[in-house]
């Protein structure tokens, strides 16, 4: 069992003069009689002693300036956090927008470069073909001047392309090439029963072989078109002008 100090005996206090006797319930306890006391707790009803609860010191009252300062600090801190959050969101949106725009611009730039490169390649191809054609034309002209006897080989090749069953064969060459063909391809002409005819309409270096079954075009113009087409050009052959 828990022990407790005996309460001091009540002291009779005389009633005030000139008045009615005080009620027992209106009697107050002098301070000197309160030598020991403790705050009441629910456990006291069960006969248990309640632990004394220390009294909390009263908080000092804040002035109006301090309250306003705290509110300003809280508002400033809240504004800082809100601004920081909004700034991060705006930065992320800007990065995504910038990346999309940069990707689109790079794609358009690459497409433009590809188109320009294709056009440049085509221009270079045309320029190269034109140069090749010009060089080939010059080579043919030079060969016609330096080696006119080559026309005999051309006539033999044209006759060889004609079917053996062909009849009434006629070989037309430029008048300046007639003696060269007669000398260089005379045996084949006799073997095929072909007739050699000088024709000023035929460009030097070429010939036309006519027969009852068709014509073999071995003219300079025809052979030139086939060679130029292989270079991607349609430029016609231009004989060198006479001085």
A few lines on this structure:
The protein has 5 helices and 4 strands.
Please specify the SSE layout and strand pairing.
Layout: H1 64-146, H2 150-161, E1 170-173, H3 178-184, H4 186-192, E2 195-198, E3 207-211, E4 214-218, H5 220-230
Parallel strand pairs: 1-2
Antiparallel strand pairs: 1-3, 3-4
Task: Tell me what the structure shows.
The chain is an alpha+beta fold. It has a domain at 147-230: ATP synthase, E subunit, C-terminal (hypothetical protein PF0899 fold), CATH 3.30.2320. Helices cover 49% and strands 7% of the residues. It is built from 5 helices and 4 strands; from the N terminus they run H-H-E-H-H-E-E-E-H. It has helices at 64-146, 150-161, 178-184, 186-192, 220-230, and strands spanning 170-173, 195-198, 207-211, 214-218. Strands 2-1-3-4 form a 4-stranded mixed sheet. A hairpin with a 2-residue loop joins strand 3 and strand 4 (214-218). The chain is rod-shaped, with a radius of gyration of 63 Å. 12% of the residues are buried. The model has no long low-confidence stretch (mean pLDDT 76).
């Amino acid at each position: 069992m828990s022990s407790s100090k005996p309460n001091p005996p009540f002291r009779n206090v005389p009633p005030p003069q000139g008045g009615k006797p005080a009620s027992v319930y209106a009697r107050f306890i002098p301070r000197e009689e309160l030598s020991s006391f403790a705050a009441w707790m629910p456990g006291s009803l069960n006969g248990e002693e309640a632990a004394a609860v220390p009294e909390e010191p009263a908080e000092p009252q804040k002035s109006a300036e301090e309250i306003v300062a705290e509110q300003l600090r809280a508002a400033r801190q809240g504004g800082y956090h809100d601004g920081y959050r909004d700034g991060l969101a705006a930065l992320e949106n800007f990065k995504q927008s910038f990346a999309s725009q940069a990707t689109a611009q790079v794609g358009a730039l690459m497409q433009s470069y590809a188109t320009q490169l294709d056009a440049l390649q085509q221009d270079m191809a045309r320029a190269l073909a034109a140069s090749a054609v010009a060089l080939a034309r010059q080579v043919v002209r030079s060969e016609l001047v330096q080696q006119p006897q080559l026309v005999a080989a051309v006539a033999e090749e044209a006759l060889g392309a004609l079917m053996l069953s062909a009849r009434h064969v006629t070989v037309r060459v430029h008048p300046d090439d007639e003696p060269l063909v007669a000398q260089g391809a005379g045996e084949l002409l006799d073997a095929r029963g072909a007739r050699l005819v000088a024709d000023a309409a035929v460009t030097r270096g070429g010939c036309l072989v006519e027969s009852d079954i068709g014509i073999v075009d071995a003219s300079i113009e025809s052979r030139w078109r086939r060679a130029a087409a292989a270079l991607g050009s349609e430029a016609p052959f231009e004989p060198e002008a006479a001085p």
